[in-house]
Design a protein that fits this description.
Largest sheet: 5 strands, antiparallel
Structural class: alpha+beta
Helix content: 40-55%
Radius of gyration: 31 Å
Shape: elongated
Strand content: 5-15%
């Protein structure tokens, strides 16, 4: 008792020290937040979507970023290329209007009428952004386009510039890398290419006689319904392009634009449905129902087969073990009943094991909540970055789950230093994420990419972890220490001497073979949906099939549980009682299969290349695979523990 009191006092002191450190850190963060609010006060306010516009009211075009089409993560500021940052003056417009607009294309009255409503605008001024938008690499800035609601423009000069060798080279390199740009009208994105190439060799690239053209004219098409903007798109004019093949010769470029407003019967709440038919973004995924049904039936049959076989074998085992008399019990004992005195012997490295189970349970809880919120509409999947920011906040709010589950299991396994278990739980997943992030963020900073998170976003995420995630994890651990049941309640007694494990086993009972089988079956259940998820995460696809995703998630959880239980039975039948870590690893092998599949997807299903895109892709896919490893490993453990308790609670043991 005195020893327990001493440990309790030590734990209390450590907890108080961590609490004081958290208070001091929060005070520092609050002071820093006031500084950030001052520095960000100069940013433009967000443009509210869905407002009813009056006639001739300004419509703001917000520019975001540019980047190679094949490398979606490799993005840069829109004004990293020498686009116009200010609008042409009225005198400059009138000077160029006669040369650029003829009577057949447009009348001068349209442009002059528009000039009556002109408002001086400057570009390259930053906008406020949400957390999810900053994580996605958005860097929204103002543009000099002067557009008013309901006023069509047939042609208008944006600016007239003479590009030197440096500017021409930057444009030409961007065009040869298939750069695209992204703009917004309210919250509706628009995409387009910067230029085009003619007569270029597919393998060699630029050859003699090939031409590089810069698109100098943009046409905005805006759909309106009851005064609200419900659709927006931008297109380039192939007739208005400038030859910039020779970068050594200064080239005069007249950037211009036109605007078209049209009545659209699309309801405002369904405004994002139009993007499934966008010419720039690939069409939304066609659900291959036959393939999905085939995968489901295959998994269902295999799982049913395992359950039936396992139940028949267990029924025979129970009948054999329950019917033998005491005289023949000793010589008849074999198989999994023989190790009843060792099967509940706790695993080595129990602190790490308990932390892994708690973290996996936390992740699967957060994933279920996010999918349910997305399905019910509480988490809007059309709002840019909402899924990412919602995932971060949900992970932090559910952190008490990991602290409670890990500490309770650790105490049930006769652990003494529960504070160390809580600290390991709080860092088991965030620390690898931070390590990968530091690497990819450093690469992005070196490349001056918008994928590098700004200081304000880093500060916000740090606050969420230090002031919400970590304290809730500790709170869950304290709740488990004081209120959770600390007795493991094993149905059989554990012997003092550990039984020797047979060393000669057939190859199909080896640990490596079982790991491969354990990962393959759940992976086959989600293989088809995995392609769509990858195309959405690392491409320009818009993922909307959250019902199918939820179904696939439930399917993989069930398949992982039953598959691991079947493999566990074969392990116990060969008298191997060290099942704790093997069960966890077998369950998590699907994460390893997914990471292996990511290599195939990168090299054979995409055109991604470069150290920046490769670092983001393989770094964050390692994090996603690690999260799946922890989630399914914890699922496998909970299924297996219930199975082991059930079978050993039904037999007679000395």
């Amino acid at each position: 008792k005195e020893t327990n009191r001493r440990f309790a006092k030590m734990a209390l002191r450590r907890t108080m020290r961590h609490a004081l450190l958290s208070v001091a850190l929060s005070a520092t963060l609050l002071l820093s937040s006031s500084w950030i609010s001052v520095t960000e006060a100069k940013k433009h306010k967000r443009i509210k979507a869905g407002r009813i516009h009056e006639a001739h009211e300004p419509v703001h075009i917000v520019v975001n970023k540019v980047g190679p089409f094949n490398n979606p993560t490799e993005t840069y500021r829109y004004y990293s290329l020498p686009f116009c940052k200010s609008h042409a003056t009225e005198d400059e417009e009138l000077e160029h209007m006669v040369n650029e607009v003829d009577d057949e294309e447009a009348g001068g009255a349209s442009s002059i009428e528009h000039a009556d409503h002109r408002m001086r605008k400057e570009g390259a001024e930053r906008h406020h952004q949400r957390l999810g938008e900053s994580i996605m690499g958005d860097r929204r800035e103002t543009s000099p386009y002067e557009i008013t609601f309901g006023d069509a423009v047939d042609w208008r000069l944006l600016c007239s510039v003479t590009l030197g060798e440096e500017e021409l080279t930057s444009f030409k390199d961007a065009i040869h890398q298939s750069f695209f740009f992204e703009m917004f009208v309210e919250d509706l994105p628009m995409w387009g290419y910067i230029g085009d190439i003619a007569d270029e060799d597919y393998i060699i690239g630029e050859v003699e006689g090939s031409k590089t053209f810069l698109f100098s004219h943009l046409h905005f098409r805006i759909g309106i319904n009851d005064g609200k903007i419900v659709s927006a798109s931008v297109s380039t004019d192939s007739k208005r392009k400038v030859d910039i093949t020779d970068v050594t010769k200064p080239t005069s470029v007249k950037f211009s634009y036109s605007v078209e407003f049209e009545e659209d019967d699309l309801p405002w709440r369904k405004r994002f449905s139009r993007y499934t038919d966008s010419g720039f973004v690939p069409r939304v995924f066609e659900i291959h129902w036959l393939s999905i049904i085939n995968a489901f039936v295959l998994v269902l049959l295999l799982t049913a087969f395992l359950i039936v076989i396992l139940m028949r074998v267990l029924k025979n085992d129970f009948a054999r073990y329950m019917d033998i008399d005491e005289e023949t019990m000793e010589e008849e004992e074999s198989g999994w009943k023989l190790i009843h005195g060792d099967v509940f012997r706790f695993p080595v490295h129990n602190t790490l094991f308990a932390s892994a189970i708690g973290t996996g349970t936390h992740l699967i809880t957060a994933t279920m909540i996010i999918l349910i919120l997305a399905l019910t509409g509480f988490l809007s999947t059309t709002v840019r970055g909402s899924l990412l920011s919602g995932s971060v906040v949900t992970y932090c709010l559910t952190s008490c789950v990991s602290g409670y589950v890990s500490t309770r299991l650790y105490l049930q396994m006769n652990g003494k230093n529960w504070v160390r278990c809580a600290l390991l739980t709080a860092s088991l997943f965030p620390v690898p994420v931070a390590i990968v992030f530091m690497w990819v963020n450093s690469v992005a900073l070196a490349k001056r990419s918008t994928s590098a998170l700004p200081f304000g976003t880093l500060f916000t995420i740090s606050c969420l972890y230090c002031l919400l995630c970590f304290p809730l994890t500790v709170f869950g651990a304290i709740a488990a220490k004081n209120y959770a049941k600390k007795d493991f309640d094993a149905p059989t007694r554990t012997t003092k001497v550990q039984r020797e494990i047979p060393s000669e086993i057939p190859f199909y009972h080896s640990r490596f073979f079982q790991m491969c089988v354990a990962g393959f079956l759940p992976f086959s259940a989600i293989y088809i949906e995995l392609h769509y998820i990858f195309a959405s995460m690392w491409g320009h696809q818009i993922y909307t099939l959250f019902g199918i995703l939820f179904f696939a998630f439930i399917l993989i959880v069930i398949v992982t549980g039953f598959n691991t239980v079947a493999l566990l039975y074969f392990q116990l039948a060969r008298e191997d009682h060290r099942w704790w870590w093997p069960v966890f690893i077998n369950g998590g092998m699907t994460g390893i299969f997914i990471y292996a599949y990511s290599f195939y997807f990168y090299f054979h299903r995409t055109g991604m290349s470069g150290i920046l895109q490769g670092s983001f892709y393989f770094g964050y896919m390692a994090i996603v695979s690690f999260a799946i490893f922890l989630m399914l490993g914890s699922v496998a453990f909970h299924f297996s523990l219930a199975f082991v308790r059930y079978i050993y609670g039904r037999i007679k043991c000395d």
